Every structure is written in C-alpha cells, then in structure tokens.
Amino acid sequence: MLMVAAAVLVHELGHIFVARTIGVKVWEVEFFPFGGQAKIEDFTGLHPDREIYVALAGPAASLFTAVVFYFLTGKNLHYFVKVNLLLAAFNMLPALPLDGGRILRAFLSRLLGYRKATQAAAFSGVFLAFLLMVCGGYCMVYGDLRGVNYAVIGGFLFWGAQREKWLLNYAFMRFLVNKKRELAGKGFMKSRQLVSYPDTEIKKILSTLKPEEYTLVVVVDKEQHILGMCGEAELIECILNKGPSATLKDL
C-alpha cells in the first residue's frame, strides 16, 4: 500500500512541477484509488496547450520513475515499477477526469468548441466507469475479489466524470475569461465568422466557441440580407442579462 501511495505522489508531483513551471498555481492534491488530482488554479478553461502539458506530466513522471527503478533495482522493486506503469497507462485513457480525458478535451476543443469537447470527454468517462463497474460485478459474481477494486474505481471515475459535467458552466466561463486575457495580452487573435438568423438561441452559438479564435456572428434575415454583426462580448452580455433562452434578436 505504501508503494501505491508513493507512486500516486510521484504522479501528482509531475503535474505540480509542470504547472508551476508554466506559471499556474496549485492549491491542493486529492487522492483516489486510481491516482490523484492536483487542484490547479484556473485548470478549468485552461488554454489547450497548457492543459496538455500539465495532463501529460503525471503519466510521464510515472513512466520515468518506472524505467529508472527497473534499471537501478532490477526485480527488488518490481511491484513499484508495475504500479507506476499501470498508473501511467490507466490515466492516459481518453476519459475525464483522467489525464487522457483532459488531453482529449484539449484536442477536441479546437474542433468542436470547449463545451462540446468537455461533454464528449465526460461522456467517455461515464462510459469507462460503466464498463469497470459491470466488469467488477461480473468478477464478484464468480468469486473474483478483484471485482471489488474494479467497481470502486469505476464508481470514483463515474463521480469524477459527473463532476466535470456539473462544473461545465463554471469551466466554460473560466474558458471565456482566459480567452479574454489572451486577447488582451497578445493584442490580436484569429477570427472566424458565423452566419445566423435572428431567432437562433445564443447558447447554441456559444457552445461552438473555440480557443485561439474570436467569433463574429453575421445576422441575416430570411432573404439573407445582413441585419448586423456582433462579437463574443455582446453574446455573453446578452445571455447573462436575458437568460439562457435569449436569441440573437434580443441583442
């Protein structure tokens, strides 16, 4: 058990080291049966590149530790090497809240937008949790006590994936705030244009917002005559003032 705790600690120290290296603060570390989670300031809504760097750091630290101890100690600490390898491999599965899920979200956010990317990665986490719990139940029915571990890990994974979904609105607002900071820092940003009718719900447009791109919406009537144009700032302000059912004609 001590070796498992040590392996989890090494894994999380990898996250912490890279986070601090790129200037992101760490609040605390939570430990789970399948690993842990460093509570990182502004990790929700973090720039995709930064999210990938921080997420990769944990598995990389586990893999590096496994290789070092394998060659330095031989079979003396074979179990510790095995735990580190399993920890690295499991956490790279593409399912939130695992590291692989964060990497998946970072890649998908450039294609689908941050909200849809988070929803997809969280769904993957729920699916993996379901498989683990089913596998655990099957094993326990046939007397294999390893099924208890599978079921417990699946339960924690399900809870973590659900939490990502519950925090989605908060995470999305952090994403928008960080994006605004990025624009202010650089002074410029690539833009993209969408064309939409006035009765389109603003939340549908916001769900397509992507990192490193500022969205401009051209509003047209049924004859496709241009009625006006608005940017992300106007969209966000309108939905905050008018509520989630606000449409473009409320601008």
Automatic annotation (TrEMBL):
<keyword id="KW-0472">Membrane</keyword>
<comment type="similarity">
    <text>Belongs to the peptidase M50B family.</text>
</comment>
<feature type="transmembrane region" description="Helical">
    <location>
        <begin position="52"/>
        <end position="72"/>
    </location>
</feature>
<keyword id="KW-1133">Transmembrane helix</keyword>
<keyword id="KW-0479">Metal-binding</keyword>
<dbReference type="GO" id="GO:0016020">
    <property type="term" value="C:membrane"/>
</dbReference>
<feature type="domain" description="Peptidase M50">
    <location>
        <begin position="78"/>
        <end position="132"/>
    </location>
</feature>
<keyword id="KW-0482">Metalloprotease</keyword>
<keyword id="KW-0378">Hydrolase</keyword>
<keyword id="KW-0862">Zinc</keyword>
<protein>
    <submittedName>
        <fullName>Stage IV sporulation protein FB</fullName>
    </submittedName>
</protein>
<keyword id="KW-0645">Protease</keyword>
<dbReference type="GO" id="GO:0046872">
    <property type="term" value="F:metal ion binding"/>
</dbReference>
<dbReference type="Pfam" id="PF02163">
    <property type="entry name" value="Peptidase_M50"/>
</dbReference>
<dbReference type="GO" id="GO:0008237">
    <property type="term" value="F:metallopeptidase activity"/>
</dbReference>
<keyword id="KW-0812">Transmembrane</keyword>
<feature type="transmembrane region" description="Helical">
    <location>
        <begin position="117"/>
        <end position="141"/>
    </location>
</feature>
<dbReference type="GO" id="GO:0006508">
    <property type="term" value="P:proteolysis"/>
</dbReference>
<dbReference type="InterPro" id="IPR008915">
    <property type="entry name" value="Peptidase_M50"/>
</dbReference>
<feature type="domain" description="Peptidase M50">
    <location>
        <begin position="2"/>
        <end position="73"/>
    </location>
</feature>
<feature type="transmembrane region" description="Helical">
    <location>
        <begin position="79"/>
        <end position="97"/>
    </location>
</feature>
